[in-house]
Amino acid sequence: MIRLRSLLRLAVMLPAVLVPALMLAGCDAPAQDLRKAMTQIGQGQSRAGFLQLQNLAAAGYPPAQFRLGMLYLQGQVSPERLAKAERWLALAAGNGDVGARYFQALLWLSPIQRGGQGAAQSAAQGDAPGNAQAGLAQLEQLAAEGFVPAHLRLARMHEAGPEPLRNQARALGWYRKAAERGNRAAIQRLVEAYRQGELGLATDPEQARQWQRRLTVDPFGRRGAGSSP
Amino acid sequence: MLPPSAELRRFGLGLLLAMPVAMALWWFLLAPYLMLAMEPLVEWTLRLLWPQWGLGLEAKETLWQVNTTLPILEQPLRSAVFGLPWKRFSVAFALFWGLALATPGARPVLRRVRQLLLGSLAGIAPLVILMAVLYFHFELAVLINHRPYLTVQPPPYHVLALPYADWQFHLIGVGRQLALLILPTLGPVAVWAALNQPFLRAVVLSGPSAQIATSLPARASNSLPTTASTASDRADGT
Lengths: 229, 238
Hints:
By secondary structure, chain A is mostly helical. In chain A, about 75% of the residues lie in helices and about 0% in strands. In chain A, α3 crosses α4 (about 60-75) and α11 packs antiparallel against α12 (about 205-215).
C-alpha cells in the first residue's frame, strides 16, 4: 500500500532535521569571510580586503595567515615585508596549512638558490644557515605526504640545483614518484631522460615509449586524449 | 480495472505523451526556477561537507559556479573555481514528472498533484543534492590529486592541498559515475516506484503471472487464482 501519510511525515521531519544542520553549515564564518576578503582584493578593493584578512589572521585562522604571508611576500620585497611574510607563514605552517608549509620551505631554501655553493654545502651537511636544512626537510615531509609539487621541486633541486645538492639518483626517484601519481611534467622529463640517457639512466627507447603512452592514452584506450568537460 | 496487459499499454502510451510534455516543461520553463530553488540547499550542503574551503555557489547560465578558498600554487592569492552542470542533475525532476503523469489510474487531480509535489520535494530534491555533492567531490579530487581520471583531465594549475589516498580517489570516481549516469535515470524511477507500489504490484509485477493464469486450462488456472485476484483487488484498491 502507498504510505502517503508516512511520506508526508518524512517530508515534515526532514526539514526539521536538515534546516538546523544547514544553518550550522552556514556558520563556517572564517572561511566565508576569507572568500569575501580575497574577492575584494581581486576586485581592487585592496584596503577593505586586506583589513578583513588581517582580522582573520590575527584571530588565528591559518588560511588567512597564509594569504597574508603571501601578500607580504609578493611585490617589492623589503626586509620588513619579508619578516612579516615569514611570521605569518610560520604561524599558518604551525597550524598545518599546506600552502604555508610549502612556501615557508621555499623561503627557507632561498638562501641556497641565491647563496650558491657555500649555502648549499651547509644545507647538505645539516648545518645550514637560514633554516635551509629545515626547508629541505619540510619539502621532503610534504613529498612524503603525497604533495606532488614538492616531489617536482625536490627532483629539480637535486637535478639542477647547486652542486652539493645535485644527486641524479634522488632526482630520478622524485621524478618517478611524481610520474607514478600522473604528473605530466614528471612523465615528460622521464621520457626525455630515457630517450637521451639522462639522470643516470641508460638510453632505453622502450621505457621512453611506455612512459610516453601514459601521456597520450586515456583510461578508455583512446589515443591522444585531450582535456574534456 | 483493466487487465494488466491493457494497463501496461495505457502506461506505455501515457509515457509517450507525458514524457515529452514533462521534458519540454522542464527545459523551456521550469529549469531556471528549479535551479534557483535548489541553489541554497546545494550550497549549504556543500558548505556542511567541506567547511574548510569557504564554498559559495553562484548561478552562471548553464552552470552552478562553486567559488572556493582553495589556493592555487602558481598564484596563491587566487582560488580554484568549479562548475557544476546542474541541468544534468535536474533532469531527474522531468523524468519523475513524466512517469508520475503517465501512471494510469482513476486518481483525482488533487491526489496526482500531491504525488508530484511529494515526489519532487521528498524524493527528487535530495537526489539532486546528492548528485551535486558526488560530482563536486569528484571535481575536487581530480584537482587536488592533479591526475586524469575517467574522461576528466585536471586543469594546468595545482592547488595547495594534500592529495586523497588512491582508494579514496577511485571511490570518489565511482561516486561521479553514480551522479552522472545512474542517479539521474534510475533515481526518478525509484522514487516513482516507491510512490506507486500498488500500480507496480498489480500491473507490472503480477502482469506476466496474470497473463499465464488466463492462458492456462481451467484446472491449472484454479491453482493460480490468488495472484490474479490479488493483483486486481490491489489495483481496485487504488
